Amino acid sequence: MKHTLKLLPVLMATVLLTACPSDDDDETPPPPPESSVDWTKTNAWFEAGQNTVAVANDTEVNLTRGSAKNVILFVGDGMGVSTVTAARILAGQMEGQTGEEYQLSFDKFPVAGLLKTYNTNQQTPDSAGTMTAMISGVKTKAGVIGLSEDALRADCASGQGKEMITAIELAEIAGKSTGVISTARITHATPAATYAKSVERNWESDDGLSEEAKTNGCKDIAQQLIDFNYGDGIDVVLGGGRRHFIPNTLTDEEGKNGKRQDGQNLIAEWQNKYSNGQYVYDQSGFDAVDATATNKLLGLFNASHMEYEADRENDVAGEPSLSEMTEKSLQILSQNDKGFFLTVESGRVDHAHHAGNAHRALLDTVEFAKAVQVAVDSVDLSETLIVVTADHSHVLTLAGYPTRGNPILGLVKTNDSAGNPESEPVLAGDDMPYTTLGYTNGLGYANYGDDSVGDQRYSEPHNAGRHIHVDEDTEASGFHQETLVPLGSETHAGEDVGVYAIGPGAQLLRGVNEQSMVFHAIDFAADLINQAEANAVQ
Amino acid sequence: MSKIVANTFAMIVGLLVFLTPIGQLSATPSSQQATKVSYVLENDGQSPQIITIWKSSQYLAISFETQEVIGLWQNWNSSNPTFFQVYPKDGFRIEFSRMESQQQANLLNQLKKLVGQQRLLEKMELAGDAKQFHLSAVEEGAEVAKTLDSWQQFATYDYADIGDNEAIPELARLIHQGFVPNF
Prior knowledge:
The structure holds 2 protein chains of 2 kinds.
Chain A: H1 2-17, H2 44-59, E1 70-76, H3 81-94, E2 111-116, H4 127-136, H5 156-159, H6 167-173, E3 177-185, H7 189-192, H8 211-215, H9 221-227, E4 236-240, E5 250-251, H10 266-273, E6 278-280, H11 283-288, E7 297-300, H12 322-333, E8 340-346, H13 349-354, H14 358-378, E9 384-390, E10 393-394, E11 396-398, E12 437-442, E13 446-447, E14 479-480, E15 483-486, E16 492-493, E17 497-502, E18 511-514, H15 517-526, H16 528-537
Parallel strand pairs in A: 1-8, 1-9, 2-18, 3-4, 3-8, 4-7, 6-7, 12-15
Antiparallel strand pairs in A: 2-17, 9-17, 10-16, 11-12, 13-14
Chain B: H1 3-19, E1 26-27, E2 35-43, E3 49-55, E4 59-64, E5 70-74, E6 82-87, E7 92-96, H2 102-115, E8 123-125, E9 131-140, H3 142-152, E10 155-158, H4 169-175
Parallel strand pairs in B: 7-10
Antiparallel strand pairs in B: 2-3, 2-9, 3-4, 4-5, 5-6, 6-7, 8-9
């Protein structure tokens, strides 16, 4: 393995200095990317992950390097174990069951484990550091994307020479097709970690760059996505964040202004770069894409994040669901005989939790599980590794002793002394009812009923403590759970997250692992580094 | 066709593709024609307070005498305006991405009645309320436009992103300062 790692600088230099391997012979090879990458600088985290895989390879049966032609990595942003449990119960109850016995799509996977999510500088992590761990195999600092922990946040110069390669980049060099999907902005931390290197997650377009960043030549994240030149470029990109690709002098199709101050229209640049590619911005355009005749697809469906699943039907121009985007992407990517690598993020579970709104967080999680099922139904599991996990957790809890089948978003009704359900909500020591779901911190209680809009809670001050009435509709989309510690936004949580896997190499994710192990399991299963080397040398 | 001609043709086509606005994207008008207006708000039983309103073809903004935060709508006269809270002292903007509460919608409608027409109202009474607005000062010109434009250069965050930016202390502090009140 050390031999492989030492070959990588040579490999990368070869790739950067020669025409990029491409399956699209009719396209002009793009210019090589500028890079100061020295892959040998990667680091104790990387080597530890490779060693763990090597040990497993000696003890596990039926474990064969390179047996996964395809890889799909699903990330539920902020989808901690309590969120999975609550979403499972809600999904079951939405189908008329009691709920607890229900199985989400990935509950049925044969392998499950836990991931330790901490960043190198934070006990409770953020998405930038955690996704970097999963996609590059190296833990790093909070707020930092695609760079090792030696980089300082928001200090451009400190990150130069600290760039890490990602599984998406390796897959492209190996000749596979690749895709990145997110319901958040496609320049947001989690999707950005698949293709960008940035010391600051907020540098999504040039308006966010500091003077030091501009002086030292750091590029914004949207620019890096368009400039991505490994292999034949990322084949499918679907998400939100249109504003970071267009000038602030332009108003988009939904009446929102761009952010770019450099006057560039990166969507037009992408269309110029991929003359056979298709750009779509709404549901009808997305539906019209013929997957069998498309090998490059860019979809930017919202100026900022895409809608919560609960609000999707209210979108101005219309947006596809996460499962629809997953299905279309797999149809496009699976046309490559060398296989594909797809990353799918449900980005707004996290945002709903930050607002203290479990209803929207759980509905997005249920849709996420549907997208996983779409993948299971679309691929050959004998040659496809599917990994489902979260980047971090949130401070959501399931508490009290609700009776079996109690509405998961409802007030707690317990059992009587004989074990039968009570008819009325139980009262706490303050003679007030309480919900099963609650948050340890955040903005706290509010109830806007079913006519609410997402993130509405931020328009009012925090309101910690006890406020719920016995006759309150706590299942409404606009109900925000009570909290203990008043904060302007509910926070991430630091406990382990679940990882669920099926397909070749899945067993590598059994047990309790560092989060960076996700990359190393994927690398082993798909043999990404070796295939990238082989393809680059050809 | 010679190679040079073909390459030149390809460059021109590429340049045209680059320069042509795609789909239904449209250019945003300049904010050079800008007005700053002050009104005295008399509310029954309360001390009069001054509200300040900035208006251009693209932006409509309001600040209350007692608050540091400014409420600002971009594309205010469209069917889908974007609301920002602007904190000029700290150099931040917070964007309500496509999210607008009923309270903000009501405030925008009231402002449109007050200053949304070609001619500013000198006096307005809110129906069913004992509230009166009296025009007290008007300023027009480049300085007003400059102020509006300066706010567009501020670092901007979505409300949805605040929870992921707790490392920025100014942002965390701003969240606790409340929001733009109604009339």
